[in-house]
Amino acid sequence: MLAVSRLYSFLDHTNGFNVQFLEGQKLIQDLVLLHPLQGSGFAYFRDTFLGILPVIFFLKPGESLGVYIDSEDPYFRLKIETNSAGHTRTLLLPAEFNTFPMKISGKVRVTKIFPNNKSPYTSMIELDKVDSKNVINSIFTESYQTNSEVIVSELSDQSIMVTKLPQLNANMAVDDSTSRKDYIKKKNTFFHDVFESASDDIEKIVKMFEDKGLTYLGSRQIDFYCPCSKDRMVLNLRGLYSEEKDELFHEKDTLEVVCDYCNTKYEISKAEVMGS
Questions:
Q1: Are 118 and 168 within one domain?
Q2: Closest among 86, 89, 110, 92 to 43, alpha carbons compared
Q3: Are residues 252 and 209 located together in one domain of the fold?
Q4: pTM of the model
Q5: Mean pLDDT over residues 233-257, rounded?
Q6: Whether 40 and 173 share a structural domain
Q7: Which residues are CB-contacts of 232 (< 8 A; sequence separation ≥ 6)?
Q8: Does residue 206 share a domain with residue 83?
Q9: Residue among 55, 116, 105, 54 nearest 75 (CA)
Q10: pLDDT in the model for residue 170
């Protein structure tokens, strides 16, 4: 049985880098059950999902993030929503999507929601035949404006995000001369070994990184969670019913409504929608 997925944070103080390790095997197992896509479509879904989730590292307590990819060529809609607690939900449309796009044209919308009802921050990224594997890193560099890069494993359902920290002139112990790309190249064999081990054991994972001189900062659980409920579905249907009274139930007394994110089914009566 797979352990609950976690996002681990490590610090390479000598070289001035943060390294985030996403152990996502349980997540992907659950993703298969929630969204039974096949072939190349699921492969793209999986890679993008593992690539984006390390962004949770940048979220402060109470913050939430939504990443929405609206691709026109090829046509698909991908939604990934998560928060600082690691609760995540996702959706890929159309349901029969079965393509691993080499290049994507469209838009990416990134929405960050703050606690205490502050106005959300939204940024837009235009995609014009952008390599699909570069879309993830475009989100980090253009929206989050961080010097980060994500490596998604081909050996296991895991990923690593490397972030170069700002220069610390007062700290002469930090070697600031290493670029992000040089650091990743230097650590390539180690990252490969981590992915090849495919471990989901907390102690083993921490030891692998600490043995390479990285300091363990902590980890957080990452899981699927959908806040949908029957009450929310009823409220949504009331809005539709006010505009489509004759079509919504169409001589039926109940409707079966399915949440697109988690596939939970709700039986909702006409009386509930009408508030009687």
A1: yes
A2: 92
A3: no
A4: 0.88
A5: 73
A6: yes
A7: none
A8: yes
A9: 105
A10: 46
Residue at 209 is within a domain: yes
Q: List the domain range (segments joined by +) for residue 168.
A: 6-224
d(C-alpha 176, C-alpha 184), whole Å: 14
Does residue 60 lie within any of the structural domains? yes
The residue among 28, 35, 27 whose CA lies nearest residue 262 is: 35
Task: Say which residue, 11 or 269, is predicted with more confidence.
Answer: 11
| Token pair 């698909």: residue | 76
The mean predicted confidence, pLDDT, of the chain is 88
Q: Are residues 59 and 188 in the same domain?
A: yes
Cα–Cα dist 101/40, whole Å: 9
DSSP string over 72-97: EETEEEEEEEEETT-EEEEEEESTT-
Q: Which phi and psi (to 5°) does residue 98 adopt? A: -140, 50
Q: Mean pLDDT over residues 127-145, rounded?
A: 86
What confidence score (pLDDT) does residue 48 get? Answer: 94
Angle between helix axes 39-52 and 25-34 (nearest 10 degrees) is 130
DSSP output for 40-59? HHHHHHHHHHHHHGGGGGGP
AA letter at 119: S
Helices 188-197 and 202-210 sit at what angle, rounded to 10 degrees? 170
